[in-house]
Write a structure and sequence with these properties.
With about 625 residues, this protein is mainly α. A hairpin with a 4-residue loop joins strand 4 and strand 5. It is built from 33 helices and 6 strands. InterPro entries: DYW_dom, E_motif, PPR_At4g14850-like_plant, PPR_rpt, TPR-like_helical_dom_sf.
DNA sequence: CTAGGGTTAG
């Protein structure tokens, strides 16, 4: 491009026609040639040429595409007779920079000057409206597009649907879609995405099945929609379907990035590895966002080493906030607090500014590793050093930090000093702390708040009930059970799953429907004796039943967690690492039992519960019994 | 010119 500029600057017959300049500005647009553009601008200025509206439009486009929105804005504002083209250029520029209110401001002025919007104007204006989420404004814009006779233009109508979707007006979006005379793949995609974001999975699926032509975005929208609605299985199924050889669409990097969290969610390590290999083969693994998604996938599948490996493969200058956050959270969930802290400091060194998510990761990392004072210091520095607002979730982390360490009074004190109303996560942390430090008074206090805040959460009743049971307070246990019934709380059934050779095997507590039930149960029946021989004492306080000690012990042996581990030991060769995932928090008895199992059978067992990872080796757990 | 996106405590 410089070749275009040099002769122009040196030539004795320097162009005087604004249109010549305009042509060169246009040539510079979209090629990050800011320096050359500025040079040309300066040259023009020295020649005393004031840009007309047409030239200004080209300059705006050049500056906007080169990252200098300020200059673009200045040029727009200093042009005296703006044309519709100039308005379109600046509207496009502001909208791309997410300067939504500026976009609308300019659009209003454009209307005031009685210029018609065209199909280059409305999509950008509507995008800004969508970003702001102002339905009323959207309706006005809709009306305006009708007046200009463009409301059924494919682009404009699709943008209108997207706007209604993003403002939460799904019905209006649907009506418009149904009325459209001509639809585009994008029109379908916009609505599908809207339904998915609204959790209307079935409606999304219906449209997807119905649409005449699907492109890669349609497929990816469905996959990420399933993932975000917690339907990992459906996401993976759809991914497989579209990856078949005869499929007319091919996954791209966005698809890969969208499907990886589904592997993470279901702890499908083998599946995740397969997708990683697939991405490598197709050259789709070089994008930093894909690499970040890989870090998250490996971390959630229990493979911290692979997570770190993928993180290191991201080019240092491309490690953005999300990448750092993912790595910090990975260490935190695996109980590697010191590493989380070290990673945080590296991030600061690298000049990346932390956000709220960084601190939830960092603080929970400190919490899981007992780094109480370090955590408290970071909490204090959030506002003052890093200018990150302390939000409710950060208080929840710090209450957890103090609570785990047994500093219950301080934790309670902090709750009373919170600048906002303490919610369920804060009281939940306190309840857990009361439980693990056997402080019935604190636990009762927290539980009472929780019964009001989230009456449907069975976990709270179970936790308190277990504490009553442990203290032999059977009357209170009965009362709680009554309360549980009257509130018609559904007990969230515990389940665990293990992946063997790429296939997931799911176990429910006490369930006997698995094909190998007999083997599993006989394995588990022999287990207590073996464990008792090396010093195990069952902790029956984790069984929520007012029954004899013997029976309690039995129901413990069939916790889903133990079924999955028994199945794993029976179906893998000696020495294979077992990875088990549980939908609830791991119970104390299972935790103790797995420690023994890891020793007796010489296995490394990695357990992921709702909160974190436990890595059992040689009779010890990575959490140091601190969870 | 419109559509799909990786990180969030307990």
């Amino acid at each position: 491009m410089t070749t275009l500029l040099e002769p122009l600057l040196k030539s004795s017959q320097i162009p005087v026609q604004p249109s010549s300049y305009a042509a060169v500005f246009k040539a510079f647009t979209g090629k990050s040639l800011l320096k050359q553009g500025q040079q040309l601008h300066g040259h023009m200025f020295l020649r005393g040429l004031r840009p007309n509206a047409f030239l200004a439009a080209k300059m705006v486009a050049m500056y906007a595409s080169s990252g200098d929105i300020t200059s673009a804005s200045t040029i727009f504002h200093s042009t005296r007779n703006p044309s519709p083209l100039l308005f379109n250029s600046i509207i496009r520029a502001f909208s791309l920079y997410k300067l939504s209110s500026e976009t609308l401001h300019v659009f209003v002025r454009m209307r005031y000057l009685c210029f018609r919007g065209d199909y280059f104007t409305y999509p950008f204006v509507l995008k800004s409206v969508a970003d702001l989420g102002f339905v009323r404004l959207g309706e006005c814009t809709h009306g305006s597009s009708m007046k200009d006779g463009l409301d059924f233009d494919v682009y404009v109508a699709t943008s209108l649907i997207d706007m209604y979707v993003k403002c939460g007006e799904l019905c209006d979006a649907r009506r418009l879609f149904d009325e459209m005379p001509v639809r585009d793949v994008s029109s379908w995609n916009v609505l599908i995405s809207g339904y998915m974001r609204d959790g209307a999975i079935d409606l999304a699926r219906e449209l997807f099945d119905e649409m005449p032509l699907k492109n890669i975005v349609s497929w990816t929208t469905m996959i990420s929609g399933y993932t975000q609605n917690g339907l990992a299985g459906e996401a993976l199924q759809l991914f497989d379907e579209m990856s078949r050889e005869d499929s007319e669409v091919k996954p791209n990097w966005v698809t890969i990035m969208s499907v990886l969290p589904a592997c993470g969610h279901s702890s499908a390590l083998d599946k995740g590895r397969m997708i990683h290999n697939f991405a490598q083969e197709k050259g789709l693994d070089s994008h930093p966002s894909v690499q970040t998604a890989l870090v998250g996938m490996y971390a959630k599948c229990g493979s911290l080493a692979n997570a770190r490996f993928c993180f290191d493969r991201i080019k240092p200058n491309l490690r953005n906030l999300v990448a750092w956050n993912t790595m910090i959270t990975a260490y935190a969930s695996h109980g590697h607090g010191t590493e989380a802290v070290r990673t945080f400091e590296c991030m600061i060194q690298a000049g990346v500014h932390p956000d709220g998510i960084t601190f939830t990761g960092l603080l929970s990392g400190c919490s899981h590793s007992g780094l109480v004072d370090i955590g408290l210091r970071y909490f204090d520095s959030m506002n003052s050093v890093y200018f990150v607002e302390k939000k409710h979730e950060h208080y929840a982390c710090v209450i957890d930090l103090l609570g785990r360490a047994g500093r219950l009074v301080e934790a309670y004190d902090l709750i009373s000093k919170m600048p906002m109303q303490a919610g369920a996560s804060v009281w939940g942390s306190l309840l857990a702390a009361g439980r693990s430090h056997r402080n019935l008074e604190i636990a009762e206090l927290a539980a009472k708040k929780l019964f009001v805040l989230e009456p449907e959460n069975s976990g709270n009743y179970v936790l308190l009930s277990n504490m009553y049971a442990e203290a032999g307070m059977w009357e209170e246990v009965d009362n709680l059970r009554g309360l549980l019934k009257s509130q018609s709380v559904k007990k969230n059934p515990g389940c665990s799953w293990i992946e063997i050779n790429g296939k997931a095997h799911l176990f429910l507590g006490g369930n006997k429907s698995h094909a190998q039930t007999a083997r599993i149960y006989s394995f588990l029946e022999e287990l207590p004796e073996k464990m008792k021989a090396v010093g195990y004492v069952p902790d029956t306080s984790f069984a929520l039943h007012d029954v004899s000690e013997e029976e309690k012990e039995h129901s413990l042996t069939t916790h889903s967690q133990k079924l999955a581990i028994a199945f794993g030991i029976l179906n893998t060769s000696p020495g294979t690492v077992l990875r088990v995932t549980k939908n609830l928090r791991i119970c104390g008895d299972c935790h103790a039992a797995i420690k023994f199992v890891s020793r007796i059978y010489e296995r490394e067992i990695i357990v992921r519960d709702v909160n974190r990872f436990h890595r059992f080796r040689k009779g010890c757990c990575s959490c140091g019994d601190y969870w």
